[in-house]
Amino acid sequence: MSNVKDVAHGNRANAYTALILSTLAMIVCFMSWSNFAPLASQVAQMFNLSVSERTLLLATPVLLGSIMRIPVGILSDRYGGKKVYLILMAFILIPLIMIPRVHSFGMLLFAALLVGMSGTSFAVGVSYASVWFPAEQQGLALGIVSMGNMGNAVAAMTLPYISKAAGFDAVYYFLIILTIIIGVLFAIFCKEMPVDKSKTISGALSVTKDGGTWYLSLFYFLTFGLFVSFTNLTPTFLTGMFKYNPVTAGLYSALFAFVCTLVRPLGGYIADKKRPMGILQWVFVAIIIFTLLIMVSFHNEGMFIAGIVLVGLAAGIGNGVVFKMVPYVSKGNTGAVTGFVGAVGGLGGFFPPLVIGYIYQWTGSYELGLTLLALTGVICWFALWKHYIHGDVHIVK
Questions:
Q1: How far is CA 82 from CA 186, 187, 348, in A?
Q2: What pLDDT digit, counting tens, does each position of 312-364 carry?
Q3: 2-389 architecture in CATH?
Q4: What share of the chain is helix, strand, coil (3-state, %, to 5)?
């Protein structure tokens, strides 16, 4: 595998083209993955949804997009990220064509499940981009490609305006056109990554035997889970608690997603220079404090928005730090480790909206659901301190 990587490292033009177009492709895919969040109020009116049904709709794409990161990451390592990316973008067109044509909540949920495949673009993008860069540059490189997460923010900024100006169906025609354009550009300009044809599925699944895979998965469950959850829930919070209109609420959701995404390369860069686990413990402390701030600010608009932005900063840096360590867990199986860590992180974005939605349905309050998020932060901090800070285990020497 080292010879394969040497070939990749020797061509900087291919490396930078792969990095740029992987990031752009992930932005477009993440726009589809998060398409319902900025349109949640409109969809709820169209289909007469309760709060719990609305949060179920928001969570459904996250489910498939999380679970399928595992096989998609393995396939990327085995057959090449370019091929897998192009097949994925072609598949995403199916639910994008379906959504404007459904007339029941059940069919809308099915289309939402299918569009969730767009979330697997993360595993493909990281696998494809990482092979072109040496280890000492991977923290920054993976932080950059992971900025494809800002597709959530771009969706929040653009989709409500498109819907308001041209109608609900126009949103999906716009996403279809974008997906086709980036697919064509990717097919023309990107080279296929070097792959190791001797790899087997069982070999890739061996990453589950490494404790580092599961610890990173737990940490990413919190940091990336917060990114997905709060990007999806912020419009619901703002329209419900502070009576914002959907367009303005979408802008604040975009602000959160941009903050979280833009600082991600900073987290990777810092982790290139300092011990990653030492940085991560302060990230968890910050997440706990800022989540508590949000809990006590549901009647104070300024404090609430400040809490959202601060959680985004902490979670974004944490995302970058975690993925600095992914290529070190199982050398040559970056796609497989990315798939597992990304899947668990995605599930961190699946469960909170559901739990918070159902708790709100029962109690009329969001505070208890946020208490559970803060508790998750405490669990992650303790696991980190016990195993890596207080213990003698190191992923990155």
A1: 8, 8, 27
A2: 999 999 999 998 888 777 776 777 787 788 889 888 988 888 888 889 888 88
A3: Up-down Bundle (1.20)
A4: 85, 0, 15
